[in-house]
Amino acid sequence: xxxxxxxxxxxxxxxxxxxxxxxxxxxxxxxxxxxxxxxxxxxxxxxxxxxxxxxxxxxxxxxxxxxxxxxxxxxxxxxxxxxxxxxxxxxxxxxxxxxxxxxxxxxxxxxxxxxxxxxxxxxxxxxxxxxxxxxxxxxxxxxxxxxxxxxxxxxxxxxxxxxxxxxxxxxxxxxxxxxxxxxxxxxxxxxxxxxxx
Length: 197
Prior knowledge:
single chain, alpha+beta, 5-stranded antiparallel sheet, 3-stranded antiparallel sheet
């Protein structure tokens, strides 16, 4: 991915999905996560909340380049649960996304094909009920300058509109800015040029 954009589920908005087949019920939950630890914490919470369910299967993909991922079948036949869940995250082009599917067993075996369909559909339903947003990968830029340069620096900040993370105004001033990765070099170049003007 050389783009500085990525798609994810809106933070704090949980997408819920449901699927049932031969009396088995599949409850799906899609979340935004920023780390593997956050995803694993959610697994613990769902296992505790649905302690009476037969399976708590999940998948996640984390990181702007999507390199960290996992699919877990939680006792279902290999690749019938976690993989179809991860497949839904991937086919929607998402990252920093976690989906958990809770299965209440209905007493009738679904077979591997039936399980794959059930987990895929439950995950797809959770994503269909999620708010998906595009976010920019940001990069931090720190710049030190003398107080008389303040107006020129502020003009660039106003023009390029980065988020101001930190600022110190003293004899030597310093600002830490966060800007879309694709514009970070332009911001650095424009600030650097001020030192030579």
